[in-house]
Amino acid sequence: MGINILATGCYIPEQKLKNDDLKKFIDTNDEWIRTRTGITERPMAGWEPCWYMGAKAAQQAVERAGISSKDIGLIISCTLTSDFLTPSMASVIQREIDAPNAAAFDLNAACSGFVYALDTARRFLETDDSLKYVVVVANEALSRFLDFKDRTTCILFGDGAAAAVIEKSDKLYSSHLASDGTGAKYLCARNLNPAPEVAVENGFNDGFPEKPIHQLVQDGKEVYKFATKALPRAFELAAGKIGITSEDIDWFIPHQANIRIIETAAKKFGVSMDKFIITLDHFGNTSSASIPLAFNEGVEKGLIKRGQKLAIIGFGAGLTYGGIILEY
Ligand code: UT7
To answer: Does 285 participate in catalysis according to the annotation?
Structure first.
């Protein structure tokens, strides 16, 4: 069983942080950021809570889908920057979009979140005949978890939200989700509550950076190495199940973390960069929102058309990765 993506929607904060703005508080420059990452500017949430951006994106997707919000049976938010530990972002979004008949929960697979959530949604649709529509929301406010003194990390991320409304269909679909927990320490934001002494003494805290406690810290080189392997692998694992090759794909929609990671994947597939939807330059890395924001922009620009085969491929903290091949 496949899915039909009825519509997508997005919310992009008005405030933009340009590369030159970053020069005001860290030792960096536009040329370094552009050539090493492909990023020129990134949206930054100002007053907007993470749930607000998600609700706006979901509302737009529901309106474009032309469905009644009362027919939504499930909402999944895949944020890693929730405003609360509880309630879930999905529950707050449910209230905002008036979807009283939906189940709601959050799923955290970091930057692979949208791939994981879309695939989870498909599995719910397959096993529950009464389920008509699912809304998957990727809403991220990374800027609230960044150390703006760390030039190796804070330049990369942006804020925003995107959502998709999906239903069952018999269109082409294949997926593969994966993770390598041995790399968990390479990209993490620790909880504000420190681990209990007993956990530390017994080595359960080993390998994770001691500080800062709730800000994103990463070993950029290790994540880069992982990403250049994970992105092609995510495609091969999903595509291999249905005998699809890169030549069959109309559009690749990769996680937007670094243009060099995407270029390496393109080379590996032997396809031109013209087959990749790129939004990295103006959105930066918006974590789980990066793939649906690129998807939404590709549709809005008329690049992605009905009937085309898409490869949605992601990677992120965990270290998670995953791919979905689907017909739009
Ligand atoms: O969703 C997943 C999120 N994470 C990622 O995707 C991270 C993946 N990793 C990367 O994208 C890259 O490793 C980075 C963009 C983080 C770093 O790029 P790099 O080419 O690996 O640079 P580097 O760490 O090797 O640093 C090269 C130089 C260093 O200076 P020295 O030691 O050669 O003098 C850094 O201190 O560039 C310096 N540098 C900077 N210079 C100007 C590091 N950050 C900056 C900066 N501005 N923002």
So the answer is: yes
